[in-house]
Amino acid sequence: MIDDVLLDIDDRMEKTITSLRADLLGIRTGRATTALVDRIHVEAYESELPLNQVATIAVPEPRLITIRPWDASTIGAIQKALLKSDLGLTPNNDGKIIRLAIPTLTDERRRELAKVVNRRVEEARVGIRNIRRDGLKDLGDLQKNKDISEDDFYKAKDDLQEITDGYVKQADDLGEQKQEEIMEV
Q: Which of 82, 96, 110, 118 is the most exposed place for a label (fewest CB within 10 A)?
């Protein structure tokens, strides 16, 4: 029973780290990458679709992303979605292809992005701690129902804290890596 609770907690914390990793990939670092536009959704064909389902995305140069819509009628919707996104980039459209030039980051913008990274990492830490709280509640319920002994409860509680500390460290490490990437000139 304890193992089931700990496995569930471990799985949920791993998903939090995976989500954080995906979030951090979408933060601009001055280098072009398709991950910058992965989370953008486009209003096309009477529904909201991910950008990669309506266009081909490529990085032909280190500071350029090209987006070639499969259907020329969606180019306006793609451009609007890019403008609405929090990328801070202005798309250039020649009627067939959209180009996103990635400018070098100013010092001020680097600091702003570092704050965004810190905020996302803190949100992940809070999520991990909330999962730990749920796990403690589950373990407490097992003890209350006399399914586990008090000694088993305290051992499981220590194991839970160890798992939590590991995932918090992973979140911190991801944040530090991303900040180094952002501050790299």
A: 96
Quote the CA–CA distance of 61 and 90 in Å, as a whole number: 17
Tell me the pTM.
Answer: 0.73
For 54-73, what is each residue's pLDDT tens digit? 999 999 988 889 999 998 88
Beta strands in 97-176 (DSSP E): 98-101
Q: Domain 2-25+106-183 belongs to what topology?
A: Topoisomerase I; Chain A, domain 4 (1.10.132)
Check if CATH label 3.40.50.720 holds for domain 34-101. no
What DSSP state is assigned to residue 106? P
Residue of higher predicted confidence among 174 and 106: 174
**Which residues is 57 bridged to in the sheet?**
67
> What phi and psi values does residue 67 have, to the nearest 5 degrees?
-125, 115
